[in-house]
Amino acid sequence: MAAIELRALTKVYPGGVKALDALDLTIPEGEFFALLGPSGCGKTTLLRTIAGLETATGGAVVIGDRDVTNLQPGARDIAMVFQDYALFPHMDVTDNIGYPLRIKKVAKPARREKAAEVGARLGLDHLMDRRPGQLSGGQQQRVALARVMATQAQAFLFDEPLSNLDARLRLEARTFLKKLQRELGVTTVFVTHDQAEALAMADRMAVMEAGHIRQIGTPAEVFQRPANTFVASFIGSTPMNLLDGVVRGDTLEVAGHSVAVPTSAKGRVPDGAEIVYGVRPEYMTYAAEPAEGAFGGKVAIVENLGATHLVTLDVNDVTVQAIVPEGSEPAIGDDGYALPRHDRALVYRNGELV
Amino acid sequence: MTRFVLGRIGFYTLIAVLLAFFTIPLLWLVTAPFTSNPTYEVKVPDFTLENFQAVIDHPYALPSLWNSVVLSVGTALLVVLLAALAAYALSRVRLPGRDALLYALLLLSSIITGTAAMVPLFQLAVELNLIDSQFGLILILTGGLLPAAIFMMKDFMDSTPKSYEESARVFGASPLQIVRHVVVPLVRPGLATIGVWAVANVWGNFLMPYLLLSDVEKQPAAVITYTLYTEGGQANLKMLSTFGLLYSVPVVLMYLFVSKKYGFRFHGGIKR
């Protein structure tokens, strides 16, 4: 087990596309770390550069206390699970799990023994003679994990580990993966485009956009205090309300309403400054009656989220969304009022959190 | 109704004639070797084996079949080895102008084995002291088949996902180990296809060995067939039919074997 450290890591593809722009990142030993971002943001390139499948144009990758920037993937003492699992179709499960040991010239009986041991741990004991083509998606994923565990590498890299699974299986696999990583205690970096997956599994995460890291933090930090409007709009199953506004002394003028400056920004925004007022729909209290500081408007859409409803209000031609518990959802066309929670509302200036 | 019936009758008659066109020569090939005095007719054979005895007694007939095996298997091995390596490189390494190169190769392939290149090829063989040498002939036949083989092989290579190789690389496999453990098993049906295709090509090739081999002891079966005449200068139907049967059986067996073994299926199993 080892920490991973990236120093000013840069990757420029031939043709001038800058996939990674001078990234600095430290992942401590034993951490479960998520790289999150929309497609094309460079998260997979970053993972592949750590693995050595892509050569860095500049900067350094340090694993443990070794600078591995110029080493071949096989010399970096890491193991990787690919998005399609890359199980060799012509080998059975035992041979697949034992393949890393075959490369290390471990004798066949020892390989079989290790494969059986790791396979049993992941509940694959009755499948050891099958070929990957005869396994379900979830079983294939566990074989890929078993193969990685058999390497006893310093760090694991997972590329979109859950994206090839069915929706229901994905939730199960999420819990399983988190539990497994906790038990093994191996530093693990995984890539995902699904913010819910990153929030649920990671100890810490980096949100990426266009080759830059836009925020690093625990899931709670990233969810509650997104560092900029990009992260704010990317994180959360319902997008955050981001409303343009202007500072007027102790209050903000937002969507034709006057709201108090949130706790977090008090005394830090000059009078007259143009800002963006951000508050998650989950942190809005909805009521049918007007209240001090609430956004009033007409209900445009009501979406059923299961135990809750997402209500979209039309407030002076600005869209404001609020989460309403079941049983108290309004009808379309009703007058509604959404009151933001002071301690959870945020103010962004020039795209950055104040 | 009558028109329909007449149409049907006409259709089946046409099919029957077409079938006869292809079946009768085959029937002749199977029956004539077992007939005492074969003619150009298809007759019920009297199941004699003396024609086979005559072929066995012929000084060059059986050795020529062995020569055919040497030439075709030698060429096939060389073609499969070189085409696999070249196609792997072409499939995995980005080269500027790669596709243009491939199409140029494919065009060239029809020229090299074609009659147009016969004179320069003959002169080249003479200069390099490769005339009347089976090894020299194998090299020239390989050169003729390689472009098309590389082209077909590259298609097989392109259809195997890169992640298999990358996965092996991360586990520390060397490039040669990757080729041996991962790439070759994955493209094995492709290798078999190219091998069979090369064997069949060389097995039936008459012109190249006829021109480049002068020693009758080195000639393959395709050329020896051409020399089977009676003293009177007539085609020796006894020898021709029997030798023809012996000449075709190995190729048929090879097709059956390879198609049963590989069946040209791909055991993948990854959802994408």
Automatic annotation (TrEMBL), chain A:
One of its GO terms (cellular component) is ATP-binding cassette (ABC) transporter complex, substrate-binding subunit-containing. It comes from the Bacteria. SMART domains: AAA. Residues 4-235 form the ABC transporter domain. Pfam families: ABC_tran, OB_MalK. Signal peptide: none annotated. Keywords: ATP-binding, Cell membrane, Membrane, Nucleotide-binding, Sugar transport, Translocase, Transport. GO terms for molecular function: ABC-type ferric iron transporter activity; ATP binding; ATP hydrolysis activity. CDD domains: ABC_Carb_Solutes_like (cd03259). This is Multiple sugar transport system ATP-binding protein.
Automatic annotation (TrEMBL), chain B:
InterPro entries: BP-dep_ABC_trans_perm, MetI-like, MetI-like_sf. It comes from the Bacteria. Residues 65-258 form the ABC transmembrane type-1 domain. GO terms for cellular component: plasma membrane. Keywords: Cell membrane, Membrane, Sugar transport, Transmembrane, Transmembrane helix, Transport. Gene3D superfamilies: MetI-like. GO terms for biological process: transmembrane transport. It is found in: Cell membrane. The chain crosses the membrane at residues 9-30, 69-90, 102-122, 134-153, 190-212, 239-258. It holds the Pfam family BPD_transp_1. It is a multi-pass membrane protein. Coiled coil: none annotated. PROSITE patterns: ABC_TM1. Belongs to the binding-protein-dependent transport system permease family. This is Multiple sugar transport system permease protein. It comes from Nonomuraea maritima.
